[in-house]
Amino acid sequence: MINSIEDNDWIFNIIEEKISNFLSELGPKLIRVALENLDVYILEDRNKSIYRCKGKREKTVNTSLGSVSYKRRLYEEKISRNEVRTVFLLDEILKLKFLGKSTLKQAINLVTEALAESFRNVSKQNDSPLLCNPSHQTVKNRVSDIANLFKNAETQRIQKYYKNELHGENQVEILFEEKDGLFLSIQGQKAKKEIKLAKVYEGWQLERESSKRYKTINPLYFAGYENPEQFDAIVNSGIAEVYDSDYLKTKILNGDGAEWISKEVEMDATVQYQLDLFHIYEKATRKIANSDDRNRIKKLIKNKEFEKLIDECKKLYENELDEKEKEKLREVYIYYKNHKDFLKRYIDRDDFKLDVKQELRDLGTMESSIHNVLATRMKGHGLSWSVTGADNVVNLRFYIKIKLKKYKKTLDNIGNFFEPPSKYYIYWEEF
Q1: CA 184, CA 388: separation in Å to the nearest integer?
Q2: Calpha distance 359→352 (Å, rounded)
Q3: What's CA 124's distance to the chain center, in Å?
Q4: Could you tell me if 167 and 192 are in contact, meaning their C-beta atoms sit under 8 angstroms apart?
Q5: Where are the domains of the chain?
Q6: Could you give the C-alpha distances from 17 to 10, 21, 65, 149, 168, in angstroms and in order?
Q7: Which pairs from 13-22 meet CB under 8 Å and 24+ separation?
Q8: In 207-354, where do the E strands start and end?
């Protein structure tokens, strides 16, 4: 018996492949049946004195199940005695909106893949009739379409922010914000261009009770090539949409010392700025060649002896004889001197008197966020971007991390029109 089955190829992978192929062909047909059945219902239920049927028109769309061609009726709607318009009632009732020829779900599927791999790779991986054979340009267009949806929402949010119309409901007394930049290769330009990034969160919590690793609470991400004032509007409007600004008492801002980051302190007295600890150490690590001097400076940083740190860096600079090393030491000294007010950690400052229940920790999650969320997709392998293209992918990488993953396509009220013909039922004889 076993030999007989093996001789006739009745093995699991053959069965799996046949069923998979059958269902792949069945899906688009069932979508067509559901839509055309609903169109018949609309024909019979319409107000005939207002809507005059003008015949059927065929439409082809790309769905997550494959390419679907279906026919729906065109109507002439009587608006007044002398005014009429043409309308597809099926499209209006279902509020059908397409991005190019793609449904929103299909577009999001392509975009999700494109946020992890190049547009050309996504095109190759979807090169089959079932997956609608999207070209490299189609994938790029869908990324642009989805990004524009979020950009439009962002623009409306900023407009409401300027009008003081955003009133978030979440009540927290303190928020933590980290800002940094990512330099990306831009097409046609020799110099890389920095895209601004921000991460806002409520604090930290253990990943698990038994874990020693922490994760940030309710992170929000923002990105853009805008100037500092415009970028701050993007970030602060996002905060105002979620949080009650009247309840919020302070925001701790963490950055690497770039002028566009610290500029926010000048505009908002409630913001407390501190220099990122990673960059404080990094400046000594990269610029101080002598290991003994370097270790001594790092020890001062660790012990939070910042006044002494600046004095020691000044001495190193003044006593150095080698001109190249002297210039590096001068850079270290100037960096610490110019940021002396921001070296002290926020929790050690006299003016920080906020009493909160949660554990207060030092900031510094942005570097890992950039690497995990962005750098692996945006840099290396000879990649170069247009400014718009980079902005689209970076923002969608952030959106997919916190928003798009919540996307759900509802199918309510469609079941009544879904009556597949018996020929679509599975018959084992077909195998």
Answers
A1: 12
A2: 15
A3: 23
A4: no
A5: 18-96, 112-162, 163-406
A6: 11, 6, 16, 38, 51
A7: 15/431, 18/431, 19/426, 22/426, 22/430
A8: 214-216, 220-224, 250-255, 271-275
- Summarised one tens digit per residue, pLDDT across range 196-247 is 999 999 999 888 888 888 889 999 999 999 999 999 999 999 999 999 999 9
- pLDDT beneath 50, residues of the chain: 1, 404-431
Burial, 302: exposed, middle or buried (Cβ in 10 Å; 0-12, 13-18, 19+)?
Answer: exposed
Alpha-carbon gap, residue 15 to 1, rounded angstroms? 18
Q: How many CA atoms lie within 13 A of 428 on its CB side?
A: 1
Query: What is the pLDDT at residue 286?
Result: 94
* Contact indicator for 186, 213 with CB cutoff of 8 Å: no
Burial class (CB in 10 A: 0-12, 13-18, 19+), 387: middle
- What's residue 417's pLDDT? 46
How many C-beta atoms surround the C-beta of residue 344 within 10 A?
16
Residue whose structure tokens are 């920080």? 352
Using the structure block, give the residue that is written with the tokens 């600046």: 310
> What pLDDT sits at residue 332?
95
The pLDDT value given to residue 402: 55
Q: Which long-range contacts (CB under 8 A, 24 or more apart) does 188-195 make?
A: 193/225, 193/387, 195/223, 195/224, 195/225, 195/390, 195/391, 195/394
Tokens for 84, please give them. Answer: 């009429």
Q: What is the pLDDT of residue 10?
A: 59
**Euclidean distance between CA atoms 270 and 22, whole angstroms:** 62
- The rounded distance, in Å, linking the Cα atoms of 391 and 147 is 9
Radius of gyration of the chain (CA): 30
pLDDT of residue 275: 94
Burial class (CB in 10 A: 0-12, 13-18, 19+), 29: middle
**pLDDT at res. 240:** 95
Q: Where are the beta strands (DSSP E) in 118-219?
A: 174-184, 193-201, 204-206, 214-216
Task: Look at the alpha carbons of 225, 229, 235, 238 in this order and tell me if their dihedral is positive or negative.
Answer: negative
CA proximity to 431, closest of 7, 21, 3? 21
Q: 361 is written with which tokens?
A: 């920790």
The DSSP code for 385 is B
According to the model, what pLDDT value does residue 396 have?
Answer: 85
